[in-house]
């Protein structure tokens, strides 16, 4: 009986604890180029890169708003936000158009 109570207690403790931080990946792929790439992870400063190398990929691990924006796109590029292995947002550019992917997670 003590073993069953201990197992139930461990199961309850595991389900009521803090949720694990997400594994977040932002990426840009394709055959095009961009003049400017700006990205933000929750709790971090916005970062801007000029004429970044493609493909581009960065990782983070906090709940909140994730954003990636490209300006001055030439050719075809696709931005993606992947959380815990699941693609939650994707967009593909048109020549010269700005391209944005963003996603908000509960804090």
What's the structural blueprint in terms of helices and strands?
Layout: H1 2-16, E1 24-30, E2 33-40, E3 47-50, E4 56-60, E5 65-74, E6 77-83, E7 86-92, E8 99-104
Would you kindly provide a brief summary of this structure?
By secondary structure, the chain is mostly beta strands. Helices cover 14% and strands 50% of the residues.
Account of the protein in words:
The chain is mostly beta strands and 107 residues long. It is built from 1 helix and 8 strands. The protein has one helix at residues 2-16, and strands spanning 24-30, 33-40, 47-50, 56-60, 65-74, 77-83, 86-92, 99-104. A hairpin with a 2-residue loop joins β6 (77-83) and β7. The chain is elongated. Residues 3-17 have low confidence and may be disordered.
Key terms:
single chain, 107 residues, mainly beta, Immunoglobulin-like, four-stranded antiparallel beta sheet, 8 strands, elongated, disordered N terminus
Strand content: over 45%
- CATH topology, anyone? Immunoglobulin-like
N to C succession of SSEs: HEEEEEEEE
- Rounded Rg: 19 Å
Largest sheet: 4 strands, antiparallel
Can you tell me the residue ranges where pLDDT is under 50 for at least 5 consecutive residues? 3-17
What share of the residues lie within helices?
10-25%
